[in-house]
Amino acid sequence: MASIATFIRNTPTAMLRAYFQHAGIVLPASVDWSAPTADFVRTLVRAIEESDETSYARVINDAERFGGMADEAGQTAFYGVTQNRAVLDTLENGHARALWMFLHDPNGLRHAEEVRFTDERRRGRMWDGFIGRPGLTLQRDPAVLDRFKAAVCERFQSKNVHVDIFDRQRPTFDGDDCDLVQATVYRDGRLDDFLEFVNGTLDRRPRRPVYEAALTYETATGVIEVVANDRESREDFVRLFARELLRSEFTQERLPWRRYDLGILLRPYDFPTEPEDGVESVRVNHLRLMPMDTVGERVTLECTRQATQSIWQMAADHFGSSNPLLGGWVATQAKLTIRFRPEAGSRRGRTLPLTVTMPHGCDLKDRTERERMIGEKYLRRWYIVKDV
Prior knowledge:
five-stranded antiparallel β-sheet, single chain, alpha+beta, 12 helices
């Protein structure tokens, strides 16, 4: 019940009343909307627990859905798809914005969930990027969409396909938003059976699982990105997307890998930052080195949080003229910690740990949207990212 209590506690009372009216859930007279917060939350949670099974399931599922979009990544997704940014700005918090979208823009809420699904998997194992022609117009005519859906059905042997197409924005590290068109494709898979209780008896029921894939097209650059389960299906989705919706030939030319170069960390570095980002300090905690003349050896230098010296001072003091940072070694992995100044009302500042592994590895994709933006910006500023 934690998700329900969190939802109630963080949502304005007037919006809660609107939600229960919208859901058609009748609450008992014991729910006093003017009661003190603690009493109100306790009473409403109890009323939900004692409601019928359908109402209870509805509230708990919706509460989890709203809570899942109430964080920073969810809010970024809302602002990337909505035409009502000014309205969202007036609302108290993420829960209130998620519920407002549910009540007033349900398609926008679903699109925001699709944006989050897509962006959280960028540059991960489910992602691919391709170079297409810039300046194309994505076709949205129903007949064109029907041809695209028929092509997806044929390729994946699906019975049903649903496609959402919408305009959206994605923040970039330089502070601007890039304009995208996203197509989210839902298709059913091959028939399978699953265990279910039917009237209290365990039985197997046939069901077709639903799979989600997403494609984005950036008109300014021609870049097509795709998120889907496996590499082969990703290429097929982009081929069909380009042929049917962009009316363009798919050349299979992939985006170049993002390359990292840790050479600048082999000597002391000041890590320049901009005041508006609130960065207090940047520290290298870990360097893994490999000799240039062999691939079978590694040396790791590490400074813990309690160390008073920098990693370069430590290496100089302990190794002297044999210091691997003086030459003959290449850095293959680095761990950095970006520490931010405390925000108003907080005693301690946040930290952003980053691990970069040569030549293509970085764990930024696992961070929040804001952390990814900061990390992208400064890895470039510090010459650690070589190309995109």
